[in-house]
Design brief:
By secondary structure, the chain is α+β, with helices and mostly antiparallel strands. It is built from four helices and 15 strands. The strands form five sheets. Strands 1, 2, 5, 6 and 7 form a five-stranded antiparallel sheet that branches. The chain has a three-stranded antiparallel sheet with strand order 8-13-14, with no helix packed on it. The two termini are about 35 Å apart.
Length: about 210
């Protein structure tokens, strides 16, 4: 599995990245690799008149990985992604520099919100909705196609501060494996995250996945 993801980052005066978001995601598990790589980076900070300043940058991350079969603690076969080589990174200029931003943690694995907090954010004001960047269509299962079964599956999920779906739950179920197909597709969605006061924030949203035979 090879691919190139393009992220936006804000580099502070100490050279640490913040507010890591996707500009061009891949829509695969390589996106999570790209987030981890960007979060671990340390940069030479930008300067103005010899003084360090905060700078917004685009970060292109080229990843070469492979899928490897391993056994877990119970002896069951599972699959993991492993890097085949060191990732190649390239900094560039953002299409539009941020005028104002509040820093958030650069750790993509941070879990600093619970369902109650997300619900309050969802109902609050002054928050821009997440913008979808990548939304692959869901595939029909063979069983549903043979049965000519169709409908709408509704999912609830959290779009985290990096624009990746988390905590997917089925609200309106479909049979013949279509709910599982909906989850599989929505897991690949990528967003520009919701923003509040110049800061990316997690929000809870509902998504409808339509299955129609034509």
């Amino acid at each position: 599995m090879d691919g190139k993801a393009v992220l936006s980052v804000i580099v502070d005066t100490a050279g640490q990245p913040h507010n890591i978001m996707f500009l061009r995601p891949l829509g695969t598990d390589l996106d999570k690799f790209a987030l981890q790589i960007a979060a671990a980076d340390r940069f030479k900070p930008g300067t103005r008149d010899g003084v360090p300043v905060v700078v917004g940058e685009s970060l292109e991350v080229n990843i070469q990985a492979c899928v490897e079969q391993v056994k877990n603690d119970t002896g069951k076969k599972t699959y993991i992604l492993r890097l085949r080589s060191l990732p190649v990174q390239k900094l560039g200029t953002l299409p539009q520099s941020p005028e104002d931003a509040a820093f958030v943690s650069s750790d993509p694995n941070r879990k600093d919100f619970d369902n109650a907090a997300v619900s309050r954010i969802r109902a609050g004001s002054g928050i821009t909705a997440p913008i979808v960047l990548n939304f692959p269509g869901a595939e029909f299962s063979d069983e549903a196609r043979r049965a000519k079964y169709q409908g709408v599956c509704m999912l609830s999920m959290i779009v985290d501060a990096h624009g990746i779906p988390q905590n997917l739950r089925v609200i309106r179920k479909l049979d013949y494996g279509l709910s599982e197909k909906a989850i599989e597709a929505v897991n690949k969605y990528r967003f520009k995250p919701a923003m509040k006061d110049g800061r990316p924030v997690p929000v809870m949203i509902d998504v409808e996945v339509n299955f129609h035979l034509y």
